[in-house]
Structure formats: structure tokens, C-alpha cells
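Example record used in the benchmark description.
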Amino acid sequence: MPSATLPQASSALLQVVAEAYRELRPRAPLPELDVKFRRFTSLNTTIRLRDGKLKLRLSDLLEFAPESVHRAIAHILLAKLYRKSISAVYADRYRRYTQSEVVLKQAERIRQDRGRKRISTPLGHLWDLEEVFESVNRRFFHGLLGRPTLTWSAHVAKRMLGHYDAAHNTIVVSRVFDRPGTPRYAIEYLLYHEMLHLKHPVRVRAGRRCVHSREFQAEERLFPELDVARAYLKRL
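Model output (C-alpha cells):
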């Protein structure tokens, strides 16, 4: 991920951070502030306290956000750092801004331009993801679903068993499945689930991202071995 530092934040943003600090910690002295924008690959924001200096790093996608959003970001970061309750007003304001259609499109474009997707191979020791994909495609999608890039994960991940990356049109499957004893229905269900993300893209409704819509869930229930497949994945 590129880490080039952009110019120091404006005096207005520094003032916003200072005011948010005083609201949360009215009796504590204000530390030195170091606020900068960075060329992150997503809407990342970070905060650290080192040697008496507060360092905030914000994605450059947020540089021209409204002051109200900057105020929400400052509050959320400081509240997390000092283990304070996050105001529901600020949390909702930040969520609505970052989940807006315009910002989501900008973030996805940045991920495509700046992000790197580690592609391994669809051909595993025991399972060929392309063969499984085409089989599932014929059974459930009449063979009409366009095949994205398919790849095994770089590591044997047990938390992230699989995911669909829309920015790179890639389905990644954990190598934990590529071993003797893995039932075919388990890997078919995992691919089926990720393929449904292809068919039913994420939607934004009332400022909230809808990842698994009603249509998605209804179609997922059509998988014949749904219960046993979910039980197998849960054991992993």
C-alpha cells in the first residue's frame, strides 16, 4: 500500500481535533497534534499517542469532507483511544457519509488503482476452483454467471474462509479447504455464497450497507446441503 504522506492538515481541522479533545477530556492538557492525510487504499483513519504527541492519519479521500464529518472522525478516534463512549450522533454522521453512494464509488476506484490483490492459483492440491465454480454455475445460475478471478489464499486461514473482492472482481478461498477429507458440498457452498455476492451486489439503503439482502438470503436457502455445509464451516 502506498504510504506517501500528503500535506499537513489545515488549521481548521487541527482546531476541530483540539475541540473534540477538550470535549472528551476537559481537564487534561492538550497534547501536541500531528494530523496528516495519507494515500491509503481505503477510508482508513488511525490515531496514536507517542511521546506526548497525538498522531492522526486520515485517508486523503476524507480531505474534502465537510467539517461536520471531520468533527465526527476526531470524536470517534479520540473516544476509542481514551476508551470513552462514542456519541451516537457522531457515529451516525460518519457512517452516513462514508456509506453514501458517491464516497463508496470513490473508495472502490481508489482500491482498484492503489490496492494490490495477491493472486495465487485456482488449482489446488485436491480441488480446482475453476472446475467447482463452473459446476455450481451450471447447477444454480444456468451457467450465466461470469467467472471472476478465482484464487486460493496465500495462507491457511480459518477465520476468513472466503470472500468476494468487488474492487478486483476476485473470489478468494482459504487453503484450509484444499486437503483430504473436505466434503465437496462444503467448498461448493462457500463458492455458491460468494457467487451470490456477484449476483446481488452490496446496496446502500438509508445510509447503511446491505450486504446480504432478502433476495440474497432467499437464494442462499436454495442450496440443498445448506445446514450440513454451515455446520462443517462452523467446525473450522
